[in-house]
Amino acid sequence: MKKTKPCKGITADTKDWGCGKPLPPNWRTHGLGNMCCYPDWLLGTEAGKLKIERATLKASKPRLELEKAKEETKRNKSLSALLINVRTVCHTYIKKRDYGKPCISCGEPWHKDFQAGHYYKAELYSTLKFNEFNIHGQCEGCNIRKEGNLSKYAVNLPKRIGVNEFDLLNRFAGVDHHQHFKWDRFELNKTRKYFQDKIKEL
Description:
Layout: H1 38-44, H2 46-97, E1 115-118, E2 135-138, H3 140-145, H4 150-161, H5 163-176, H6 185-201
Antiparallel strand pairs: 1-2
């Protein structure tokens, strides 16, 4: 006949907690076996409650990380949508402002298909993405097929905005390369409001 053993704590956490009652012969002897009152220890001691809390956190960590990743993705999508919205408002202003003016690069007479062309490319110069002196009405041929036609853009831009503004724009571009600027929600909303007000003034 298998000898019975008293209930006792067998880990550092549960040492001396066992109730001492005889355990059934078939009582499990692995893990936290040899302790029939383990649930009482879990619920009735600070160490037991801490163990439950840690186990709960460990089990929920993957779920929390997934939720965090989803929230981050949602924020990024929201910021991307706002960025597109600000770009639309900015370019609308540029096209209205330059209505009737020839292409900044080749001088082609204005027509309704003119685009908002950047001198310093938006994808390379983040701080100049919405700089109104950096964006002008441009025909599709120069903006798309000739990638901005920058050699002629550089000749005509000082005439359009003035030498002082042109020099300032070049200085801004020089500083831009030494920055890691990212548009945030506050700056985007402020920029959108700026161009919305400029459109109303036209």
